[in-house]
Specification:
By secondary structure, this protein is mainly α. Among the domains are: 137-271, no CATH class; 282-557, no CATH class. 61% of the residues lie in helices and 2% in strands. Strands 1-3-2 form a three-stranded mixed beta sheet, covered by helices on one side. The longest helix is centred in the middle third of the chain and has 34 residues, at 233-266. Pfam families: DUF885. This is DUF885 domain-containing protein.
């Protein structure tokens, strides 16, 4: 079990100056403590409202209050949320910020910023694709049932069945939102439909939807879970019968209606890929970049940064070519890395098991060295799993699912092993460090285990911070001796190169009107990744405008702040303390993170 330090360490005492708020001598420490306690109670009360309104969030947190229900997927919920945000902003106007202690003032600023963003973003509430190949509801809801809905009792099993029944209304509400989006000129390009339709049809494969020797993914999951309850044969048979009935009566028509709607809408879809095609598309994309990067960088600035980083990394790769004695061009080396059998496990079940075993070994080895890099470690464990068959064809290459806050579910590093030729062994180290340790697992698990920050901060998400940390975590192991194999170090560079190309392609598609094919060609020409990776990545850019720019922008900021700290602190610099400063206030906008680091430097030098 990993151990965790409380945030009430001496380190956090250094952070008091990050707000740059002048002390008001009229308030005693006792008065400030009282005012801060009251505001933190408000934050918790409002967070609990969010939990109460979201049965799915409850499940993720290990709360079974509304275990048989789904969230509200109606478009009216957007207006309700807007009104709630405005109401909360009105409350904050009455808060005397001079009466708050520094930590609570930081929470106040973050909460206010979050609400202001929510109000501003209302204009773009329909500027997304709820059905897409990356995380559409058609696959999200079944994945939620399989990965989140635990069955520890008969009541839990009945709640599972209740959720199966509720899928019909959920998809009706989601489909109505799709109809409204089309009326507003928001539709995904043609390529999205076939993938979403294929995944949706996959849900309806197997018993009880059709006569088959195999159960459908949801029925198989339900049966496996209730088998652990040690029920009588009759009880188990009755529950399975009820689940089958719900699958046939509710889940099947839910997906059939969705499929019918999408097939019809597909006829009107175009190949136009970028957000520029939306009404107010340029303003929307500018807003998306600001939200994802938490900076004011323009699309052109991000594009140019990408081009610069791609050139730098190509130079470092050429040095590795020399090290391993490869003769030829960088493109020749890319082709060698793409095709040489030594870098790939077989596309068989045995090959997949070898990959998972090696990924677990990499994480275990890194775990044994964490004390060199961190003072604070998470309690939550981490497991490595393959992406489930029903969604592996369209899902991303790898991703992380945070642990349950009550410890009932570990953090999970998912590797997509659908096509083993897209999972080279030379990238295994970097991928495991990013998704697992010291990457997302460290950051997200530590955040939700913090004991003295409001819940909205524990579960907040600033993509540039979270993904910037993940990408930074690919580099850190090299600095303590990992990546001994030069090919593995090439894999690290290949993944950093990939994120740098994202800066170029995302802005290319959404601001410069690049086509899908132009984006694919750029990846193929500038990276060693197989064409399937290039296609998937560009299709991800298209359905998630701006998101992919956050990784490299975030990593660069963390590295920039680390270099500033090293230079100004000299022998006083401790990488473990630096990492604590990064992690022990939960996710932060990059501007706030910069203030934090500057305050730490100032306090260390005092």
């Amino acid at each position: 079990m990993l151990t965790r330090l409380k945030t009430g360490t001496i380190l956090l005492a250094f952070l008091g100056t990050i707000s740059c708020k002048e002390e008001d001598k009229a308030y005693t420490p006792e008065e400030k403590e009282k005012a801060s306690t009251e505001l933190n109670k408000y934050f918790e009360k409002e967070f609990q409202k969010e939990v109460d309104e979201s049965p799915m969030l409850q499940t993720q947190l290990g709360d079974k209050t509304d275990y048989g229900k789904w969230d509200d997927f109606t478009t009216q919920k957007y207006t309700e949320d807007l009104n709630q945000a405005k109401k909360r902003l009105e409350y904050l106007k009455e808060v005397d910020t001079e009466a708050l202690n520094e930590e609570t003032f930081l929470s106040y600023k973050l909460y206010k910023r979050q609400l202001e963003n929510e109000v501003e973003d209302y204009d773009y509430r329909f500027y997304n694709y709820p059905m897409n190949q990356m995380f559409g509801y058609h696959s999200q809801l079944p994945a939620f049932m399989i990965n989140m809905h635990r069955i520890d009792s008969v009541a839990d099993a009945k709640a599972y069945i209740s959720r199966l029944k509720g899928m019909e209304k959920a998809f009706n509400d989601i489909t109505e939102g799709l109809r409204i989006r089309e009326q507003n000129g928001i539709m995904p390009p043609k390529f999205v439909y076939n993938m979403v339709l294929d995944d949706s049809r996959n849900i309806l494969k197997g018993r009880p939807f059709v006569k088959s020797n195999e159960s459908s993914a949801l029925l198989e999951d339900f049966k496996e879970k209730i088998e652990k309850l040690e029920l009588s044969g009759e009880e188990e048979k009755e529950l399975v019968s009820q689940a089958e009935q719900a699958l046939v009566d509710n889940v099947k028509p839910a997906y059939e209606n969705l499929i019918s709607f999408l097939e019809n809408q597909q006829k009107r879809a175009t190949n136009e890929a970028g957000a520029w095609k939306f009404p107010k598309g340029e303003a929307f994309y500018k807003n998306a970049l600001e939200r994802y990067t938490t900076t004011n960088m323009t699309a052109e600035e991000i594009h140019q940064l990408g081009l610069k980083e791609v050139a730098r990394i190509h130079g470092e790769m050429e040095e590795i070519m020399k090290e391993v004695g490869f003769e030829g061009s960088l493109q020749d080396f890319f082709e060698f890395m793409r095709t040489d059998e030594q870098f790939y496990y077989e596309n068989t079940e045995e090959g997949r098991e070898k990959y998972l075993a090696e990924a677990r070994s990499i994480i275990d080895n890194m775990r044994g060295r964490l004390d060199e890099l961190f003072l604070t470690l998470p309690e939550a464990e981490i497991v490595v799993k393959a992406v489930e068959p029903f969604r592996e064809k369209s899902a991303g290459k790898a991703f992380y699912q945070r642990p349950a806050i009550d410890g009932s579910r570990p953090g999970t590093y998912y590797a997509n092993l659908y096509d083993m030729s897209a999972m080279p062994t030379y990238q295994m180290e970097a991928l495991a460090y990013h998704e697992g340790i010291p990457g997302h697992h460290m950051q997200l698990a530590i955040a939700q285990e913090l004991e003295d920050v409001p819940s909205f901060r524990k579960f907040g998400r600033y993509t540039a911070y979270t993904e910037g940390w993940g990408l930074y975590s690919e580099l850190v192991p090299k600095e303590i001796g990992f990546y001994k194999d030069p090919y593995s170090d090439f894999g690290r560079l290949a993944m950093e190169l990939w994120r740098s190309c994202r800066l170029v392609v995302d802005t290319g598609i959404h601001a410069k009107k690049w086509t899908r094919e132009q984006g694919i060609d750029y990846y193929k020409e500038n990276t060693p990744n197989p064409e399937s990776d290039c296609v998937k990545m560009v299709e991800r850019h298209i359905v998630m405008p701006g998101q992919a720019t956050a990784y490299k922008v975030g990593m660069n900021k963390i590295l920039e702040l680390r270099e500033i700290a090293k230079e100004e602190l000299g022998d006083k610099f401790d990488i473990r303390e630096f990492h604590d400063v990064i992690l022990l206030d939960g996710p932060l906008p990059l501007t706030v993170l910069e203030d934090k680091i500057q305050a730490w430097i100032k306090a260390k030098n005092a």
